[in-house]
Amino acid sequence: DSICQAYEDEIQSLKEEIQLLAEKYEDIQQESTFFSEEAILTSIFSFEREFQGEFKGHEPPPDLKAELEILETDLSFLMKFIGIQFTSHSKKIIEKTKNRTLQKHRISGTCHSMSFQLEFQLIEMQNKENVCSAVTDLSIVMDSGEDSNVGKFLSSIEERGDILTFFKSLSSYAEWYEHRRCAFQHFK
């Protein structure tokens, strides 16, 4: 009887340990992750080293390497073309069900000389045919000086949850803001 009790106690202990590990794993999955350009490059280089180590010095498939180089070139071109540099991004899954996912995102960056930060929730709902996404609780913090028109504009974007319009407008506004700043600096 005492041997059976010892086994049952051990089984119960293992069940509790499994439960704790499962909770810890879930917490790790839910944690926010921050990505900077340096972190991304470091991850890419470590992945390449691991990949090469797995195949004992063999080169990665040429198609994969060429595709990665093309994507890096395209990303660099886009960032230079529109002037937006993303400095960090975090994503946290708040709720996940079979048909619905709620994520919280935080994006920081600069556009020309202006810094910005976005926080929003993204709701994705999936039905049989497609996935629908909606942005809620959009909050924008931007270094725009004391321009009340920009504040009104940002408030209207936050109300509508229109991130695309924000980025389109940010690019041209920041470019002209930089031109005005340089012109005023010249006359000083």
Automatic annotation (TrEMBL):
The gene is Cenpp. InterPro entries: CENP-P. The keyword Cell cycle does not apply. Pfam families: CENP-P (PF13096). Residues 4-31 form a coiled coil. Keywords: Coiled coil. It comes from the Eukaryota. One of its GO terms (biological process) is CENP-A containing chromatin assembly. One of its GO terms (cellular component) is nucleus. This is CENPP protein. It comes from Oreotrochilus melanogaster.
